[in-house]
Amino acid sequence: MKIVSVSGNISLQRDIDSGSEEQRKVVLNIIDDVKENRDKALFQYTEKFDHVQLESLLISDEEIKEAYREIDNEIILYIREAADNIRDYHQRQVKQSWMTTDQDGTILGQKITPLDSAGVYVPGGTAAYPSSVLMNVIPAQVAGVQRIAMVSPPQQDGRLPAGVLVAANELGIHEIYKVGGAQAIAALAYGTETITRVDKITGPGNIYVALAKREVFGVVDIDMIAGPSEIVVLADETAKASYVAADLLSQAEHDARASSVLVTPSKLLAEQTALEITNQLEALPRKEIAEASIRDYGAIYVTETLDEAIETVNQLAPEHLEIMTEQPYEIIGKIRHAGSIFLGENSSEPVGDYFAGPNHILPTNGTARFSSPLNVDDFTKKSSIISYSAQSIQMNGSKIAALARLEGLEAHAKSVEQRLGERK
Amino acid sequence: MKIVSVSGNISLQRDIDSGSEEQRKVVLNIIDDVKENRDKALFQYTEKFDHVQLESLLISDEEIKEAYREIDNEIILYIREAADNIRDYHQRQVKQSWMTTDQDGTILGQKITPLDSAGVYVPGGTAAYPSSVLMNVIPAQVAGVQRIAMVSPPQQDGRLPAGVLVAANELGIHEIYKVGGAQAIAALAYGTETITRVDKITGPGNIYVALAKREVFGVVDIDMIAGPSEIVVLADETAKASYVAADLLSQAEHDARASSVLVTPSKLLAEQTALEITNQLEALPRKEIAEASIRDYGAIYVTETLDEAIETVNQLAPEHLEIMTEQPYEIIGKIRHAGSIFLGENSSEPVGDYFAGPNHILPTNGTARFSSPLNVDDFTKKSSIISYSAQSIQMNGSKIAALARLEGLEAHAKSVEQRLGERK
Fold it and tell me: Which Gene Ontology terms cover its molecular function (chains A, B) (predicted)?
């Protein structure tokens, strides 16, 4: 792994894959087709792209039962415990509606309401993770969303992965459709005979899914466009190189485009970690992927001081940040940008990926500068409440009319003056 | 104004203007040009589109002083009072970071951090409103955003409207640039010699601005893509037709594509309101705009019952909702979708547009189903905090490793087991 001394500006940001014009046209055609031909288009694209002829989009009770036969009972208990932890953490995020009253009779407030419905995209292939089902669905349930629909592309045998079905069923999700790609996003945004449209679509997917989400943004809400995953470890000389290396590799095995970075003022730790990475790589079943990721997107940055290392972390704005220093709590306040912060040597990233409670759907590619882990607020919306009394409009009406006239909006002024006139 | 009896499904939703392919190409070219030629491109596009040759993009102290000479002192006092009200309301939205501790040593939490910087787009022409400056900037300031940059297209005399400059100066905003259109959005997203890039861009604009915001989404965050404005009045037989008509017209004067709708179970109120609209229209300086809006996008829906009227409102999911019924507070709980809710006959929409405190930047075109008024949360982001103790990793490590292996991610399992091995 390459070791680089840094002091100036660096960035993890890879170019956002915004797709080719060709891919965009394909996606626009699929969306138009689904808007027009609805279910029929869904069956056709599923045959074309997933190479399977389905009789029904909706998952049956029998398929759920079959899934349970494939998954170990012990694993099911772990999934339940993880779900409990995730639910507990997210329940602490719930916000209350509030109001404020004034002696002149004015009442102002903010009403918080769950979305009516949400659509969750679960990617297919090797990325079909039961944990992603928990992380997507639970915040929506805690927010109070009444209807949650899940979509996922079928395997060639026409089924969905057993772990995904078990996780969904454990959460009480019954609306599960075997459809993926841009066609699934179009169905969730516009509705078909089988799939009723939703208000918001969350969850990552391939480039066609990302392009489709970007296109339907505004018709429905979407979460962020996900990029490849990344970890930054901030460590000083007290950190164990074997831990640092293992955590960097756990990120690297995800994807050849994943990025694993160590930032440290300790040259010794840098060298030991590089060595450990080479050694630990050998034993990994996904060695090729991890090796390519470390080669192309991995780095060890050595700084002069710990403060410089912290500033480097802020420039990277990583999705996952592990802090393995002598006093990790002294550093939190200086971290301005990070999706999820793991403190101390026992908090390895998989603790948060699966089990601890916080969400693992996180801002990637430097977007932690301005976005957040998926959370309960993402599945609610706010409404302002304004209630003026006769006294408050009498007191303030002429000021409001004057401000309206400054902007040349006479009917605005008159609408207020209607209320004043009668009492003159 | 047309009166329609309704019972089935209705919708305010107009097609989202997603622009032509031609417009999209223009915008992509502008963005590329600004990325490459930076300030030089900004000056060129300003000359081309705004027909003015600037020497400097940054507003000078002299221009601010000049603006103050144009605005009435009384108006400045009203602007200050409005700003105080807006600041007070938004301060009540501020969220605290939190944490939770467990006896096994686990600490979980959520850290809330303001964005480093925000860019505010203030449209030009007749839509250059001082009130929009207050509504855009104050939530960012309350959130704690350190750097706020404002952009707005110059008038042909090379200046910005006095009201806009005064409002900005009252808020202590000094980074004000005379540049608009897609080129301003590109500058805020990618940076130039003069304009440093920001983390988030808010504020409405024309179709080129909307397309540019959509393109840079992901590089920076953006607020919603704004559509034409709308009001729905929900009223029963106790409402005054003259108030209802005046409020519908105050929306209609904004834009020929604005939509003004009355929903009522009272046929009498429907007829009286239609008559009032015809009468009040005559006196309006923006009569042509209001008349076209009422004709093309206005409607009075008459329902059988008040509950049906409420359900119709939910289907419309309006930006502004006025409730003028005998008991408005009994209805709030039934309203699932609305940007801003105005209660009772004294709460006319301009009260919220200018003065009361809640934001006037609201979700349009049915997007109140899933989005919120601009608020303090829009200018902060969250980071999860996960801190496992030696005890908590010992208790849970093997479960986490099992869940990782279920997903085929061996390096994830090993990263946890590194922590268990030593203590065996």
Answer: histidinol dehydrogenase activity; NAD binding; zinc ion binding
